Fold these 3 entries.
Entry 1:
Amino acid sequence: MDDTLKILLVDSEAGLHEAVSAALQRGGLRFTLQRVATPQALPDLLRAGPVDCLLCCMRPAGAFPADALPAGLRLLEEWLALPELPAVIMLCEPDDEQEGAGSGKGAYALRSLWLGAADYVLSDNLALLPRRVRSAVLHQRALAEARLHDAEYALALQILRGSSDAICVTDAEAQIVLVNDVFSQLTGYSYDAVRGRNPRMFQSGEHDAGFYAEMWRAIEEEGCWQGEVTNRKQDGETYREWLRISSVRNDAGEITHYVGQFGYVAAQRQLVERIHHLSQFDPLTGLPSRGLFLDRLEQALVTAKRSQRCVAVMLINLDRFRSINDALGQALGDQVLIDMAQRFSSQIRQGDTVARLSGNEFCFLLGELADPELALHLASRLQSLITRPVECAGHSVIVSASIGISVSPRDGLNSDELIKAADVALMRAKHEGGNCFSFHSHGMDEDARRRQLIEACLREALGKGEFELVYQPQNSLDSGNIIGCEALLRWYSPQLGMVSPGEFIPVAEDTGLIIPIGSWVLREACERNKAWLDLGLQPQRVAVNLSARQFRGDSLVEEVRNVLVDTGLAAEFLELEITESALIHDLDAAISTCRKLKALGVKLSLDDFGTGYSSLAYIARFPFDKLKIDQGFVRDITHNPANAAIATAAIAIAHGLNLAVLAEGVETEAQALFLRSRRCHAMQGYLFHRPLAADDYARLLASRERLHLGEVQAQGNQYLLIVDDEPSILSALTRLFRHESFRVLTAASCNEAFEQLARHPAHVILSDQRMAGMTGTEFFARVRQLYPDTVRIILSGYTELESVMDAINRGAVYKFLTKPWEDDPLREQIREAFRIAASKEPS
């Protein structure tokens, strides 16, 4: 709330004025606060200018009459007659929540709400006042806006009735239900003469059947038609008019009325256009709303059936969006929705539709699909697009989304069936933890039954000793040494077999079973680490994940203290991993809990960094020791510029805040070298070891095995990287440059080239244009973002001039050369490229 609020305080006591003012200032509100010392002064103050909030003491000091009822309630009864009463918040004493209850009308505090107060705040808890004021003012403004919309509708109807244009309204069966006076003056027909009749009675006979068929086709398919028409008056005289006919639909997308209007003037045209636009489009994002989306979906299904192609419906729900609204306010949440709408609009093909169906739910319509796999590719692109940070109001907000996809005719033949199928798929994606997409399948009933079975078995698993902890080592990227491990939960059920954590953890979270399971994990991990220390093995820290429910529990700090005492493990050898989603529910409480845990001496790490709401402002307030970069950003870090940029930014944030930084899910040496080159401290992943059982992990510690990474090549060497999926071309080019001063690297695919670039500081890259999976220009567009100082040259036998010239103009490609080549000119072109590369290096 950026504007300055005008607040009146009904009380003459200076001390209360100072206390209220201080509480509002601490809450970050901008405001003016004026005392009202007499009941007679209030109406004049309200008339003097708009007032946002009225704070009234239950027993105000000053010239206020008192009787059996507290003066504050008496004033509230009188204010009900005021025409423009702002939001009222009562300032009560603690006793007011009980006093007055014996009257049969409720305690005084509660009675104030019945009389119209927006809220009340107790005098001994004024810290709640800023939040209550914000909420009350926003609610009052929303009511005012709703009243304004009602007034606008009534005004629009009045304008239509009194318009200088002729207007005729019919029902869905084309029976006339309303005409205005101008219509009667122009046609000669009174309302009684045309009521219930079809407008074809006005036809002059000058237009053929094809003219009217085209008119109704446009009305049914596009929602309106306009053009010149010759009609006949009651006296038989013909006249020409510029006529516009629009269809009106309800929320279900059904036509309820048709509106014919002719003799437009600019003001009326704008009004009708505005009404039509609001009925079809979302006012916040400008995207089509549900009614228009359903209409286009039905049209797409008809077209697809005729052409024997598919239609895909893709429901997108932003994960944990409510927490962004709660933490940062609705204005910033609206900005996130607008930004997402713009991103989605950039991804649709001509003829496709993206709509906003409700609060944080969007929907794509993909028509004329030759292959349902195209929907998968779009979903993959959208997930990458959605996770790009939204920068607004000094905050960097990172959101993820769950996506459900249905495809006709496999999942449904009409719009209702397809949307229901997509919704089922969406729920499945959310149950898998969000930030993923899922196609609908007819095996969903089996999935539901399996979930029920998992819950039943899970309730007995702890008592039967079916859980086991495995330990995945964490390595320094500098020395390769093991510096710690993460305890990971595994479950083998005699009835279900090995159950994936991604399958049973959400069930445990939903049912609350995660609390006893989490307590067992914490104690077991601490006991095991103490046993390793007692054996004289290398001292190291064991990391334990805390679920959101565990973290928010009242007894967490005491539980951790007791486990450390019972097991004898020193606090410095325990690390607690906390996800972002566990923190933002209540920031102040989360900060307090983290500080209490730190006071015990344990280490704290922020897990899955980048997958939720990430803000430097809030991270800096927590006493973290480490950031863990989510494996989703590491998986394709060597060839995805967006994820590489996010990971690099996360590492920079960690360094700026003096935090250690660890990357999860590192599986290749190229990923590890890339992260090390960005100054990431540590890694965890299959590159070194899969998670190990406790005894196997103890043997690993005893062996002192470490991670061995290849060295990044010295900067003094010059490298040419040749990328081509034809072995004969790679061989010929390698022979061509074998006597040059630079070294030659080769790659048979773009993915292999990214691996090479992570290991070697290539200066010049020579790439084919047409390759499987990715073209040369697409490859260079990514290379330009990841390695901007390279000189990039296309060598191709195909002259795709438009895409290549576009890449050259954007700076992704330095030069375009053709196959077959001449040896000497090509050698000279590469030498010149190395001279350009050398000129870019800092002196």
Entry 2:
Amino acid sequence: MKLKKVECRQFAGLRDKKVEFSDGLNVVYGKNEAGKSTIVEAISNTIFKDAKLGSRSKEDKEFKKLFFPYPNGDFAESFLEIENDGVDLKISKKWSDKNPSSYLEIKGTKISDEKRIKEEILKIFSQGEATYNKLVFQRQRDFKESIQKIAEDKDIRNSIFEFVSTSTLELDGVSIEDLKANIDNEIKELTNSWDMDREAPLNNRGINNPYVKNVGLILGSYYNKEKAKLELEEVINIEDDRDEVLKRLKELEKEYTVVKSELDELRAFEKDALQRAAIEPKKDRLKAEYDKLIEVQKIWPQYQTKLDDKKKELAVVEENIKNLIKEEEQNLKAKEKEEIEKKLKQVKEKLEQVEDLKKKLDELKEISEQDVRGLEKIKRDIERLENQINLGEFTVSINIKNRKPIYLTKDLEEKSRVEESVQATAKGYAKVETDDFDFEIKLKDFDVEKIREEYVKLKSDYAGILEKFGVKDVDEAREIATKRNYLSIEIVNKKKEIQIVLGEDTVDELEKKLAEIGVVTLSRSIAEIRKEKMELENKKITILAEIKNIESTIKEWENKYKTPEELFNRLVDIMSEIKLLDKELDKLKPLPEGFTSVMEFNEYLNDIKEKEQSLFNERGKLQQQYYTIEIELQNKKSSKDLEEEIKIYEENYKNYLKKAKNLIKLKKLIDETLDDINSNTFDPIVDSFNKYLAYITGNKYKVKDFNESLEFEIGNDTSNLSIDLLSTGTYDTVALALKFALIENMFDNETFIVLDDCLVDLDEDRKQKAAELIKEFAKKHQVIFTTCSMDIAKLLEGKLICLS
């Protein structure tokens, strides 16, 4: 198989681009973005991608994004011409989600049906889409991961394994692959949608929820058996229903005869009963009215007397309520008087307390907080000066040798005469005075005169203030000021308490109110008065309600009957009408025995009529039901026939089940045998792999531990390396050798391979070796090599196809 021509009529960035290929090596050269990879995509998708695109599929969305013209293209189109075993194939695809089209032309015959095109493509490209996309069409973006992608693709691994394990084995002219396929097909035909382990339908989908598609022979026979059982059960139920209907019909006929006979007897009384039904209610109404009027005639005078009594009782109650209101007012005044007296007493007590506090305040010396603060300041200033003079310390020794007077002044103390030898200690200043000389000692920068002058003044001021207030010290002054402050606050608080007691009133106003109230006598509590008042008011309400009801009743009688005399006349008229109706009733047949009233008779008669009609209707329905069941049974198989069918289906089910179990055992046996045979089936691929790898690496590396999962290592005589640890150049070399080995073993005839710029990461020596290997490989298979390097294009020496 080889490619002859590809036309990108509208595909990605290419429009009306035609490329023709020759046998052997074809080198497609072009700069980046010239369309080399686009041509590879066009070839691959023309073969395998359906023309009809969906709007939701992620894959279809990605296809439109990559290959529909940007920005508003709504289709892509390409054409491919291939030669396969001397036969020309032409494939045309127009991809769209609105107006897709495609055809496959073989030997001049065009196929336009999408399903048939797909079937033919799968026959021609029998290794499958995954194998071609990962192995034959090598995109530049995938080459770095090519080994991993091939190893991870289950379809490629299965394709390789099936090829190498069955290509050399035949069985009576039938390949192992065909034999396994036939067994698999037969097992599938038997066990489709059937769980062999549980011997039941998959997912418990029995006859009530059956599979419609993919129903195997076992499941089909199981469904037939279960369906026949259901039909048998249905027929038996229908027959039971028929017998039950027939039994009920016989019972109903007897019941209907009895009811019909009784109805005919009662109808002889029906006419007179109807007339009686018209007269008796009229008589009953008149009798009821007569009884009512008799009662009214009796109680009308009593109601009038009762009304007068209630009005008198009401007047007494209202008078009592007025008296209670007055008593309540007196009680409230007494309460108010008591409250005023209480307030005045409290105010008087508090005024006396204020006077006591004022007296105590007058007894204290008038020292304010401000005066105390002044004293405290002077005291602090004196202490400050004393602290200044006490900054140092020295000793003055005075020895008296004669009786001449000697005076000593030290620090801030007063001058004093020294009577005998002494040793005095001073803090900052000392002065010794005699008749002959004065001797002065002071600390440096110490203005003793100024300090002494200030100190003397402060001491004098301090003593003068203490004398003024008649206290011994500042603490006593502070205590007096605190007491004065406390008493002043207490006086203010007491005045506030007086105001709270008085509220908005004054003492004069309260005394005036007290005089106005005067003397008030209390006989009982206000609660007792109010309780009695409430009881009388409730009694008043009750009396008023009774009066209203009596007046309403009398008013109603007056509206209806005017006066008691006219009421009597109406009684006479009613009695006359009742006598006339009695005469009419005497002419009618009496009611049948057992009935006490026309209503009772009519109700029973109507019940009998309804029962007769109901039985008649039910009989008709049962007859119709019986005929329907008989017709239904005529259209169904008999229970005997169904029992025979069930036996046959049961036998088929058992036979199919037994056959499936035997085939599964046979398949397992073949697989076990094939596993033993296939232990060395990868040797041809490994040999080809080593051949190409040795050539391209100068016998430096060999393949080690190659298995059916396409996992292996690369090594030499001293060590092995995982492919994950190979350098980029070595990895690309190994990938190219593996690709050639797989194609050489999987394709007996000439095929094509697409290599998308796979030499770029190789060093010069390996690049040379790889180019020679590609040229050698192109002698048997068609190679399409794309590159953006003119040096690589010249190195390969194939047919040069330049893309502008």
Entry 3:
Amino acid sequence: MEDLIIKYAEEYALSADKSMNIEDEQRTAFNPAIFVFVGDKVYDAISCIRQDIEGKWDNSSGVLYFHIYSEDKCRDENTPGFKIQCSGVDHKELRAHISHSFYRDEKGLIELNNVIRRLKNDLLQYGRMYSNFEKVNISLITRADDPLNILIPEIALLLKAKLYEDFKIVSADLYTLILERNHEDNFGYYSAAAMSFFREIEYFQSKDYDFNAPLEVLEEGIEINVSNNSTPIFDLVYLLSDKNEAGLILENALRKNYETISYISLLKNRSVDESSYDAENGIYNNNQFKNNIGINSPRVSYATAGLSKVKRPNSAIAIAVLYNFYRGLMERLKDNGSCDDPVIMKALGLDADRIEALVGDIAEDSFDVEDMMCLMTNKVSFADLQGMSLGMAEKKLYNDVCSKFFQDNYEKQMERNIEALDLGNEVIRDIRENIINKPELGIYCAYLWTKGNVISNEIIELNKSIQRDINRLNKELDAIYEEPVYFGPMQKIFFNQKSAMRNFKRSMLERIYGHKLQILKLRGQQCIVNKYEEILLKLNSDLEKYINRLLYIKSRIEKCLLNNVKQEDEYLGQNIEEYYETVVKKIIEDFKAKYEDNFYFEERFIGNIYELLKRDDEILMEKLIDSCNKYILPTEYFNRNFEDELHDRANINIKFNDERDILTKKELFKKLYDILEDNGKVNIYILNFTTRHRYEEKYLFGNYNSDFIRYAFELDHGSRTYKLGCIHERRTSGIEKLNLMGGFTIEDVIYGKNAMKYYEIFMKKGYRLHAIDEDKLPHIEY
């Protein structure tokens, strides 16, 4: 069930983000862009970066992707790939083998050239999508510990050479991902491989780097040299780790770094909105950033970045809506259980009329004296009976014969008829029809009114009422028994005696056993009432299981809500349940006014709770989720500006005359700014005291004219040690911030210091971690 709830929350968050992205101004790349993924360890980066760009760039269909791999090619048919053959090679030779076999494989080089040529031709078809088609930007992405990155100089230079055939300017950036929390086997080897790649970066990014190799191979076997004369391959080299500058391992670090790459690419490749340009707003300038991080210093100067976002916590909101909608359903069920006693007793079948009718179906309507008149009597004269009580007269005439006859033909027959009654199924059927399946009553009503203490009290009262009638009839019967027998003078005349005796017997038996029949019927009612109690208590036990399942569903939703809120930033996730409780209550009141109080039980919403539970708990959950998706989440309450929604939510628990002050917009902005800054720490762990040329730029993505952006620019105006800019976008879904930092060397990176230990050991053990003479590689000291 939790999986259903989580899926619902994730799908809503995704659809809400897409919806808001549609409402937000779409981003547009100024120049064509190509993303090249080198290695099997960046397989996941392809879909992540692609999805992010497709959701946010309006000319995303003109962005191209290319994957260099050795095992699993990207499954996206629109992402061409090239396979490097290196399976089965021992780690000791792997990196060097990849490079040497690459050059020896003529067919492979021909195929690679063909793939790049097709990639370039595809790019040329998208010219109209871009404002400027003179320049192309290449973003090359790899993992530091992936052995395939030994081919990055060859891949990058061949790609640049082919693109220079059609573009005036080709710029390339290298994004190197570092995974410090590495749970893979052969951790030591991969650390050594990462350091070998760092040394190679120092080599091919040096200002005097020369390259000349026959990489362009035509199908006829003709080879053409690709060269690079005394210049670094890449404009900038970014290092992005799963550990930030505070030394903390980031959750979902790789995914966040992939997204950061797409933001950096957009920042470097975006059309400038002149309406947002002023002296205060620092527009990104790539050459200026390169110069400020010390790109002209003797050592290779690296850059890094950190991305942070504040947006509506849509997943938690979706679950809060589900929870409060379900809580409203439970309250409606309980309210429907608070009915008047007579209404429920009648619905349960425990009203006097129903019980009497049941007994009437299994007992004689009236006493038939003719059967008893056929019974043999003792020879008794008028004189013998004269003055006796009717009770004594019956015994004198019949002994116990009449009593036994009544017992055999009436009492025992009623017992048999009661036993034969299919009362259980009949009662349950009636309760389902009259209570459970009626929206105005429902399953909770049936549960409450069949509970032991409730039903027992009702049974006791009903039995008392019946017993009072029995007692009354017994008194009347006793009085009949005590009446004296009296024969008038005419009855004693000889020729009238026979007829008079028959009339006497008939009258006596009708009066005595007519009353006994009425008493028997009442005792039959008591039997049926007691049977009802057994049936209803058993039914309650069954219903309790359903009610416990309803309560369990509530607890599952609540647990998911608490877990989801915990995942949000403490401030951004505050008061979600409380705020959306009031929102859902408003919506429910709207539904009540539009439909009726029991709208929950219409098929368009939830329907028959009992029938859904009979099938499966998850079926009920699916109906709840469907109702939230169709009728609640699309309402205007969920389309509010991010800042306004957060402001109202932050103040939801502050009442009139509360000792706490209402949070002002300025205080809200300060908290948002701090969150963006804390969550946007750059993703590299370095020794800060050794970084001499640290340089920072920070960019907000949002409406430049919004109150929050204006606040951010004014916050530390005059004392700012970094460049601050805004990428102007009309947006309501949230605010994003990209922090750029550069000016550090590989010797400042703590991961490099640790990797060097393994590198030196593996090199001493004879591992061929490079394809060129190690003496050509710049020395790195820690």
